[in-house]
Every structure is written in structure tokens, then in C-alpha cells.
Fold each of these.
Amino acid sequence: MFSKHKKKKSRRRRLTPSREPPAPENPPTESVGALKCVEGAPRRSRVIEVAGLQRDAAAITRLPRLSWKHFLRNLKVGEIDQVCLITTAVPLNSVKVEERLSRPKNAEPKLTREERFAAQSWKALRNSGNPVYDTAREFADIFPEKVSAELPADRGVRHKIDITPETKY
């Protein structure tokens, strides 16, 4: 027999971003000089008008939240007029950052590194009496002391890889 109970339709609740309180009629605006830098394009500077910048952390944290999903959707639709990025007021010194990142603390000292490189020089190889010296010296242009900006001389050797059908590697 049939049941007298009706099935309830499940309703999906649509999530909407929290709405910000109505803005005053004429929000205070501030002129900000901006430098737009797009990689591969010439640098262009322009002045933009920014409505009511928040200056303190308490005011910034009270601003309405917007998820990334809604942000991207609203940006594509054109509902977002401006986006402000909060950055540090102190400019970074890129030279100091590069120096700190280029040499880790546990790297070998400069003197030890120079000694190791000197032990691998042509002079050290010749003085060691190693029979490889003559063969290696024949290809000295491939192993130069300083790397040149151009390719070494062509020796007529060509490498070719033949891949046969139905092979994995």
C-alpha cells in the first residue's frame, strides 16, 4: 500500500556575501599616485581616486568579508569598482634580501670553496700525473675556466634518438 506522507522537497540555501552598510552620499576621496607595472609592458603612472581609505586596524577588520569565490564572480561581472591592496609602508631593500638568501648559513666558507675549486683546475690535474689530462686538454674549449657567451666549436658529432613504435621509453 501507499504511504500518505508526502515527500518534502529539499531546499538548497543559496549563500550570498554579506552586504556592507549603505555608504554615505559623498564618501571622502583621496588622490593616490599609482605606478602600474605590467611585465612586458612599459611602465605607466596614473592618479586614481580611492574612496574612504581605512587607516587603522580596527576599521579594516570591521570591513565586510567576501569569499574568493564571490570576489572572482563579482569581479568578472563588473560589480567591483576598486580593489585596494594593503602593503607595508617600508620599502624592501632587495640587495639585502638577495644576499641573505643567496648564501645559507651552513654553506662552506669562501676559503674552503676556493681551495676545492683550485684542486680541480687544469694545473692541479697536470701536476697530479693523471693520464686523463691529455684527453681532457683536447676538449679544453668545452671545459673553459670562464664560461663564454657563445657555443664551443662544432666537432661534427651529431646525436640522434630513434624512438621505435610501441615502446614505453
Amino acid sequence: LAYEMKVRNKRFEAGFMQMTNPKSPQNSPEKIQQELTQKISEICPAEEFIRKSEKEKEDITKEAAMNIVQEAAMRSVWFMISEKYGKFSLILFYDNEYNNAHGEDL
């Protein structure tokens, strides 16, 4: 890494979405499936959903999944490796959009 950063001026960074607690029952596959089902029912009531074509069901499911991903994107975290005076460090950036002031308390 040091060679790539110093000689080739490369920058190393990564981003990810923060989960409240990965081992929490809230993040179990069953809970995620339940959340997806809830998002689908918000888009289209169950009585209507069962009468839809397979393509329409797929589109509704994709829309619901995108809603979940967008909510997760509101809790982004990313880091980069920084080099200063020959020493390396990790810099973390925590961006929780749910904590924005939105003009209050400024």
C-alpha cells in the first residue's frame, strides 16, 4: 500500500452501510423478509398483489427492496487510508442522515 500511495498517488477507501447491530434479531433473514413484505404491502395491498402478473410482482418487489436500500443509505460509513509524514492511519467518516439538524439548532 505504501508504494502505491507514495509512488503512484493511489487512494484507498471503502464505504458501507451501518447496521444497528448485525447480531440483533432485527437483522435476521426472517426480519428482513418481514420488512420486505411490509414494504410491498405499502406499495400494493395484498389483495391486489396476488392478482398482478409475475412481471408486475417482480417490479413491485424491486421497488420495495430499493426503498430498504435507500433507508440503509441514510446510515453510510466510509473510511480511507491516509499517509502523513510517513505514518499511515485510517480516517472514518460517519454520515447518519437521520441525525441531520435540518436547520434546527444551528
Amino acid sequence: MPHERNETEDSLTMQRKERAPTRNHDQARPATLIDSVWRVMLRVAFRLARAWWSLRQPEHEGALVAIYVGSMLLLVKPSYRLEWNLPGGSIDPGETPHAAALRELEEEIGLTSHPLRPAGSACGIWDGRRDTVHFFELHLDAMPGLRLDNREIIAVHWASPEELRGLALTDAAAAYCETQL
């Protein structure tokens, strides 16, 4: 028997469509079987990690990079969450926030050797962790060529300041936007 959609499913679909950008949006190449398996593993691992974090509330430190071309801000879409984020991630043991930001730019979107400017930090309990996130900015004259890994990062979007208010952002990305824009 075919599955009939109910009002709740239709409402959720509409909410997701409303949150999803419709312009300045680039998808990664079509997913291979290996990419798809990675995406499923990342989704499962992230859900398990969030459950564990909510019980333990561990301390976590990360670095995110706000990349601008004019007033347009680059957002990335992780495969394992619904919200858009800034490129970046966790700081490895012994790594500086600046080094982590550079490493994550290369891993997630293929950008290398760009001068980053410190742009403050924010603290909060996000995803069940006691998080400290260090922000950096990168201002470019033209849209860069990006290389998405198609496993962790599956899409990018260049958002205008006005559009940011209507997008679902991670807590850390929202904290940056509230203080910097």
C-alpha cells in the first residue's frame, strides 16, 4: 500500500523548503556509493555523539571561518545536519585555532593559503557540549573555486545579509552573525 502523506509530513517538508536557499546555491557532484555510505555513517555518528554530549556536556573548542565576497557570506551544508554552518570544525590537541581554521578550509572546501583575520569568539552550550568557538574572517575579491568533499560537506551557499535572517543556521554560525553582521 503506498504511503500517504499526512499534514505533519507536509508541514515539515514545507518548513525545510522555506529554510533551504534557492539561489546562489551549489551542490557537490552526484554522490557515489562510497560517498553515500560515508554520509550515512556521519549522520549516525553525529546523532550518537549528540546523545553522549547531552549526558556528559564535555568541553569542546572549534574554529569557524566567515568567507566574504563583497557582502555575500559563504555557508556550507554538512551532510549530517539540517542547518547551514560556516566552514570549520574542531581544534585538534596541540593545534592553534588559526591552524585548525586553515586545516578545515582545505579539508571541507579545498581552499588553501589564504590570510585569515581573527574575528572574536563565542561560548555556549551547543549540541550538548560546552563550546568555545573561535571565528576568523576571509575577505576575497572574487568567488573562489571550491572543491567539496561530498561526504561531510554536500553544498555551499552564498547568502546576503538579509537572507541570513531566514536561514536555519547552527548555533555557532548564528552567534557569529548576531555579533558581526
Amino acid sequence: LRGNWGALWHALAMDHYHAGLIWNEATRAELRGALAREEAALRSRRQQLLHQTVEGRPLVVMSAWNFSEFEVVYPSLQQHLCVGGIYVRLLLDGADSAAVSKLPQPRELFNSLHHHLLASDSHLLAATTQSAMQQPSILGSTAVSIAEGRGGGSPQGTEEMQILCIRAMAAVYHAHAGAVGPCEGLEHLLRILDHTTRRPVRNHLLLLMAALLQPRSAQHLQQAQRVARANGYAVHNAGGTELLVDMAAAAHECTEPSTAAGGTNQTTTIHSHGAHSAGSGATALPGTVMSSAAHGAAIDGVTMPGLTSAGAGGLG
């Protein structure tokens, strides 16, 4: 569009709705309003300068627009979570199904999402800070809360935003594991997983753990396998193997109404023949049906690679 003003105005008149840009009639109106206010303020300032005098003589002052400090706030976009210039929901659920694979800086976005997740809720920060002062509380509050079915936590809006961050982290890692490299915040994520009592957050954290341990990256396969192995060692060294096994054991003893991913309510009853495969130790948790051919453990519908009685140590 450089130098092609006709094409620029045509593009500005169109609506755009993707991970990198939201532009519609509302944002155009907000831009027009901001420009009108800026122009009115500039005209008012010039009028003030025209009436200033020094010793009875008009004061000649050259005025100019300080465009470098001009900024537009778009209230209509406040409802959209934007991290690193990316609209997270549109990245995940937008019309472009390949948006995640096209990210130019996946590592920076992954780290920004992780930071945003930790900074989003004082409950998460308090949990991670408290855990940092102690040994990792492997079973901790999570397994107990699974068995007791407790909820609670932050307001719904904050929880939805946290889930968006976690979903985006998993999607980015699946597509760009080699570029992102080993996850430096695994210990924090495990602490959140250990302390949170919010089932949706916990479920998506488990999906993120699955992405970190077994990414589906088709590009740079060897790099993805290498970083997954490094993540496995980090999970094991941080007590993650014991945490996941304890969560599986606690959920195995739980029979309670649960909501499946499709939104239907069902009562979860875990039977011995479905909970453990012959010799595999795979455990089925609320809302999950496991067959004897299962190769991993499922926690709240999430299959965790390598978490079996014979291979629980495989995370390390």
C-alpha cells in the first residue's frame, strides 16, 4: 500500500477480523472521534497562542502537531484479549485455521502468554509464591479438590482469559515446539496445576502438559522431540510425575456428576476394568472412558503420554 493512497483508503473502508487485526465500523468511528478531538485541541491551542502578547506586541509562535505521541484507545476492543499484538481468541477460533502455524515469533508469544497467565490472577501468583518457599507439595490441594469436587477461584471473566492463554500456549507449542524450545516455566505451571481448584483451568493445564511432553509439530521434528525430552526431565525433576499420578489416584476414587466437553451432564463411575488396563495402569478420571488398549493415563479427558504404571517414570 506504500504510495498507493487509493488502495489504502479502500482497505480502511473494509472490515478485517483476524488474529492480527480487528477493524470494523466501530473502530473506524473511534478513530474518527479521536482525530476530531485531537484537531479541536490543536485549533484551540493555536487560538490561545494568537492572543498572547509581549510588551503589547503579538507573540509569534510556530505550533505543530506532536504526532509521535498521538494514541487512539479503542473501547470496542477491550473485550478481546490481545497478547503481543495477537488477538488470542481469533488465533485459536478464527476463520484462518492455519493462523498458529503462520506466527512470525512463536517463542516471544509463548513467553508473553505465560507471563500474562501468571499476572492475571493474584490467586495464581500467591499459590506459586507460597510453593516457591517450600518443597513442591506434590499431592497438594489439587488432588484433594478433585476428590471433593470443589470449585472456586477468580471471577468468570478472568478464568476465561486464563483458559485462552493456556489454550494458546498449547497450540503454539504443538506447532512450534522446536522454535519455542524447552519450556522455562514448567515448575510454575505445575504449581498452578497443583493448587488450582478450578476444573476448567486444570483441564486445560493438563492439555498444555500433553503439548509440552508430546508436541505434534510437523516442522523440525527432531528439535521438537529434543525439547519434549528436556521438558520430560524438567517435569520429573519438579515432581510432576508424582503430581499426575496422585491426581489420577484421587480422581479414580471419585464418583460425582461432571460436565463433559460437549456440555452434557453425566455421572462418572469408574469401574476397575475401565480404570486400569491390563498391565498398563492407565487411570480414567471424571468424564473419561478408558479402554484396556489405552497407552497413557487420562485425567479429566486428557490423555497424558507416558503416564502408566510401567512408564510413569517415562516423563523423566
